[in-house]
Structure formats: C-alpha cells, structure tokens
Design goal:
Blueprint lengths: L1 E10 L3 H12 L4 E4 L11 E4 L2 E4 L10 H10 L3 E3 L5 E5 L5 E4 L8 H18 L13 H5 L3 H8 L3 H16 L8 H10 L3 H5 L1 H4 L2 E3 L5 H10 L3 E2 L6 E5 L2 E5 L3 E10 L3 H4 L3 E3 L4 H8 L1 E3 L2 E8 L3 H4 L2 E6 L7 E4 L8 E8 H7 L4 H16 L8 E6 L12 E3 L3 H5 L10 E3 L12 H23 L1
Parallel strand pairs: 1-2, 1-12, 2-9, 6-16, 10-13, 12-21
Antiparallel strand pairs: 3-4, 5-8, 6-7, 10-11, 11-12, 14-20, 15-18, 15-19, 16-17, 17-18
C-alpha cells in the first residue's frame, strides 16, 4: 500500500470538501482529497443521457447565495435564467386544472386567506431563528417536539392550506412526510433561505442555472488541485489521536495533522474509527436520516407548453408529481420538464416495475401539461436513494427532537477530525451555497488552530 503525508486529508470530493481543500492550499497547507466515486461532485452531477444534458443532481442558483455566486465568478462560470414566462398550473383536490400568475395558488378565497396567514406566521417565527443555531431559540425544545404536520393542524382547519404549506417544506425540500420532522427543523429550512416566503417563491429559490452544469464547480476546483484528488478511494478506516490522523483506503494511506469528513452524515458511520468516535457523535448520527425524492427528467422535441402560453411551472399537493418546471438546457431547441416525486409517494412508485413507474409519472405530468407530456424522447429518473455513496436526497435532517438535542454538536470537531457538508450548513442548508460556506469555515478553523499552535 502506498503511503503519503499531508497537512490535511479530506474525505469526499463534493463542493464542500473541494472548497475546504482549495482554501487550505491557499493558506499554504498540503492536502489530499479521497473520493469514493469515480468522479468528483458528490450530489452535483451533470451528465449526457441519450443525447440530452441533464442535471442529475443539484442545479439551482438563488440571488441570495453569495458564496456560490462568488465561486462561480472565481471559476469563470456563467449562468442563465430559468424559463418562467406565461401561466403557471395548479391542480386542486378534485383534479380541476387552474392557471395562475404570482406566488399564491388559485384556491378558494377562504383557503387563500389561510395560506397567506400561515406564511405570515411562519415568516414571523423564522425571523426569530438563527439558522446557524436554531437550538438557541427560547422555544426550541417545544418546537422540536411537535411534528410540522401537527403544528400546521394547530394553526388552521383548512386541509388544502395545510397541504400546500407542507408541500414546500416536506415534499420540495426535506423530502420527508411532514409528520416525520419537527416544526423546528422546518423553521431551520426556511431560515436557511432567508424566510419562508423565499421558499414559496419559485422565481427566487429556483432562479438561475449554470452553463455547462453546476457540476462544473467541483470539476474546476478539482482541476486546480490536480493530483491531490484521488478518485475510486473510499476511506475504510481512520486512526486518530490528538497528534493527527491516518486515513486508510484499499490502496492508499494518508497521514495528516487533520482530517475533514466532507460526506453526508449518514456515511460517517460507514468508516471504522480507531479509537471509536465519542458516544455523543455516535448517538447524534443515529438521529439523522436522508430524505427520498425522485427527480424526473422528460425531454420533448419542442417545449410545447411555451407555445400554448404556459411557463412550465406546475404545483399540486394532490398529485404524484407535486411540482414541475421548465428545465430546458441552455441552447437546446428541445424542451425539458423536471418533476419531483417525494417521500411516501416515491416509496409507492418504487414498488412498481420501471415501466409501470414511468407510466404513472408521465400520467401525472399529463394532468398538468396535457397528453403531449406522455411521449418524451428522453426520460430519466434521478434516484439518489440507490447511490452507494449518498443514500438519499437532498440532505440529512434530524428526527423529532434531534435538532434541539444534538444540533450544537453536529459540526463540533473530534480531536483532529472536522466535519463539513451542506447537511451541516446554517445559511444555505442542503444547497451548494451551504456546502461552500461550511467548507470555507472548516478550512478557516483548521488554519486558526495551526496559527494558535505556532504561537
């Protein structure tokens, strides 16, 4: 087995790990990045599927994502806006198809009042939440012991209003049923985006895309690091003490002063530690789990919905595909729709054969867009739950009570071992922006520790 020595070994070549590695090298430190996959990017993956360029993983850039926008500028990457001209579509409980513009769905006036009231109450609560430390809120324990679904039930009797508000957090973001996570976890999700209103505003949260795909970020960062990035190198064992670490793969051993584990929290326990991680870390990782979502890509000969005056944006908490958008790739004359099937609905369709699942999903899309949606020229499902080195999407979140109980220790270093990923971000939580922020902060903490030791 080959053996090398570095100042810092980084486990995981996603946006967070590569950002940390980049910042550490800027500070004059040596690094080695060990990546289990045969590619860099983690949950960012742009690929050619049957001649169509698809964003299999994350893809959006929002105007408040300063860290990501700075990185795009540094790497010389350009963005383009998501197509959004025309009417949006909403499907009610009875399947009635209604069109609308703006953020509020075309529901009955009484339901609209309830939705607006819920958004205002959530915005007021979110304003009290520090996304970097939601557990410090005076009512954190209380909010973490009630499910988001139950909290909504205490606020309104209007089921359609509850389902629509729940859809933005449960289906669209945490990709778990609203009974499976707490009100505090929901507030953190909203606070990480600046407000609940930002999550409701698709034109804000899903604003722009990157020419060439968002995976260009990790690809270009890795290019700068050169031979310090080692692919196909899953870390099996980490030996550590207060003096340093040794990360061991099947073919390479890296001795370093520090380690950065830049992987989803659910993968941290895949590594053997000698000695074991402290009890607190062992416990908190057992209270984190990934959500589950199918990202559906359907490419058509033309963006036929545009010709009919529609934006491609569609929502319904009553549909299998609860939201969908025009996701046409820059410069491609064809039209692409992207839709999402989350949590329990995703469980149900994965019990079907691939052919039956595809038929069910396309049928759901046709309820929004008409029969033309039934016949794409390219169809692809992003299933991150089956990815060996991810195991879910979009990010890990705590079970009931876990955020208030363990959140403060989520990123606390264990000796020379630091933790860095989008799942652990405050602002930008579960987004690339958050991954970059945490990568920068982790690198700065290591540099500061070394500076203190040198005094």
């Amino acid at each position: 087995m080959d053996s090398i020595e570095r100042d810092v070994v980084i486990v995981g070549a996603g946006a967070s790990g590569l950002t940390a590695a980049t910042e550490l090298t800027k500070a004059g430190l040596t690094v080695a990045v060990l990546e289990a996959r045969d590619r860099v990017g983690g949950r960012l993956w742009t690929d050619d599927i049957d001649g169509a360029t698809l964003e299999i993983g994350g893809q959006w850039v929002s105007p408040d994502q300063d860290a990501l926008i700075e990185t795009l500028a540094d790497l010389g990457l350009e963005t383009y806006p998501r197509y959004r001209d025309g009417l949006n579509v909403y499907l009610g409980a009875n399947g009635e198809r209604r069109t609308f513009e703006g953020e509020i769905f075309p529901v009955a006036p009484a339901t609209e009042r309830e939705i607006v009231g819920l958004i205002e109450r959530l915005d007021a609560l979110v304003a009290e939440i520090d996304p970097e430390a939601p557990w410090k809120h005076p009512q954190a324990k209380e909010l973490d012991e009630i499910s988001f679904r139950r909290w909504l039930e205490t606020q309104t009797d209007d089921e359609e209003a509850r389902r629509n508000i729940g859809m933005f957090i449960a289906g669209a973001m945490l990709t778990k049923p609203a009974h499976a996570f707490s009100a505090l976890q929901a507030l953190l999700m909203a606070a990480s985006a600046g407000s609940f209103s930002n999550l409701v505003d698709a034109d804000f949260i899903l604003d722009r895309r990157v020419k060439g795909g968002l995976q260009q970020v990790p690809l270009l960062l890795a290019q700068r690091l050169g031979d310090d990035v080692h692919l196909g190198s899953p870390v099996r064992t980490v030996r550590w003490d207060e003096e340093g670490v040794t990360a061991i793969t099947d073919t390479l051993q890296v001795k370093a002063r520090f380690a950065v584990l830049a992987v989803p929290p659910v993968l941290i326990s895949r590594i053997s530690y000698e000695p074991p991680l402290p009890r607190r870390q062992q416990q908190l990782h057992q209270h984190l789990s990934m959500g589950f979502v199918i990202k559906v890509h359907a490419v058509y000969e033309t963006p036929f919905w545009r010709e009919a005056g529609y934006s491609g944006t569609a929502f319904s908490p009553f549909e299998l595909v609860h939201e969908a958008y025009d996701n046409s790739y820059h410069g491609d004359p064809r039209g692409t729709l992207v839709g999402f099937v989350s949590d329990e609905a995703a469980d149900d369709v994965f019990r079907l054969s691939p052919e039956e699942r595809k038929a069910r999903i396309l049928e759901s899309l046709s309820h929004y867009y008409g029969e033309q949606a039934l016949n794409p020229v390219v169809y692809y499902e992003s299933d991150w739950g089956s990815e060996e080195w991810t195991r879910g999407a979009y990010a890990a979140s705590f079970d009931m009570g876990g955020l208030a109980r363990y959140g403060a220790d989520l990123r606390k270093p264990v000796g020379p071992i630091h933790f860095s990923c989008s799942d652990m971000a405050g602002k930008g939580y579960q987004h690339v922006d958050g991954a970059i922020r945490v990568g920068r902060e982790t690198a700065a903490a290591i540099v500061q520790t070394l500076a203190g030791a040198a005094r």
